[in-house]
Amino acid sequence: MKTTIYYFSGTGNSLKIARDLTNKLDECELVPIAKIWQMESLASTSEKIGFVFPLYFLGLPKIIFDFITKIDIDKSNYFFAVVTKGGDFDCVALHQLEEILKSKSKTLNAGFFIRMPANFYHNDPQTLQKQIFENSIREIERISTIINNNQKHLKIELSERNRKSFEKHNYKFHKTVYKSDELFYVDENCTQCGTCEKICPVNNIKLVEGVPQWQHKCQRCAACINYCPEKSIQYSDVKLKNQRYHHPEITVQDIISQKSIKE
Ligand SMILES: Cc1cc2nc3c(=O)[nH]c(=O)nc-3n(C[C@H](O)[C@H](O)[C@H](O)COP(=O)(O)O)c2cc1C
């Protein structure tokens, strides 16, 4: 295959972007990271490699950091990334990616952020979501032209001070993320349907006598909280009320399909 896009997605934004991009790129396949990241050996033979994933705490999700660090990319010679994010702030994800690729004697040729609806702590109003989706279609068009033409496109504009401070913030998140699931719980609306157990991309939830128990290998993707049909999953004292979000075109089954079912 000429191009492989590796993706990770908790609430569908990155999956939607990855799918649309795959359809626009020459000879492109889409591979879910959650299905393969724990394999003993990982290697790609594609000419071009892309990574599509959400921004977490100003930088890379831990699963993305671990996956890209592990995969053998010796045979590839063009690298791109599309980071979906729920806010408008600067961040350090592309710098981190550049660093990992540099350590493998490779270069990040093109990197992009796409603003998508927020999925945790707050939600964007429907009117804004509509604008965001319309804009994302235009962005995909622009990005796919750049990638199909093997162009370089990387504007990384962060002061050294911010880069260091954001990186520190993100790597602190990596250190604590697995156990941060201790703060999840279900309220009285839980019907023990098991959607959370099935949907978790890293198989981190087990129903014990019908009650979801988080197993402390969480990536904090927020799939469980946002796809719970009863809106019963809560996180710490975050006031979620009825606010939940997942991409309207990405179903429970789409999220389940990205993961490994054996464990
Ligand atoms: C744990 C967590 C941390 C996040 N941190 C940020 C952030 O620092 N900046 C930001 O703009 N969005 C942040 N977001 C929002 C997501 O990056 C955004 O909604 C993304 O498009 C979700 O992608 P997905 O639907 O593919 O999971 C965060 C979301 C989660 C769940």
Question: What's the short version?
Answer:
The protein contains nine helices and nine strands.
Description:
With 263 residues, the protein is α/β, with parallel strands linked by helices. It folds into two domains: 3-171, Flavodoxin domain (Rossmann fold, 3-Layer(aba) Sandwich), CATH 3.40.50.360; 177-257, Alpha-Beta Plaits (2-Layer Sandwich). 35% of the residues lie in helices and 17% in strands. The protein has helices at residues 13-24, 33-36, 62-70, 93-103, 126-148, 160-176, 195-199, 223-227, 252-257, and strands at 3-7, 28-32, 48-54, 78-85, 110-115, 184-186, 205-208, 211-214, 233-235. The longest helix has 23 residues, at 126-148.
Let me know the largest β-sheet: 5 strands, parallel
Shape: globular
State the CATH class of the largest domain: Alpha Beta
Widest sheet: strand order?
2-1-3-4-5
Hetero compounds: flavin mononucleotide
How many H/I helical runs?
Answer: 9
CATH architecture name of the largest domain: 3-Layer(aba) Sandwich
* Fold-level CATH name of the largest domain: Rossmann fold
Cα distance spanning the termini: 29 Å
The low-pLDDT segments are: none
In helices, the fraction of residues equals: 25-40%
Count every beta strand, where a strand is a DSSP E run of 2 or more residues: 9
- Portion in strands: 15-25%
Provide the CATH superfamily of the largest domain: Flavodoxin domain
Which radius of gyration do the C-alpha atoms yield?
18 Å
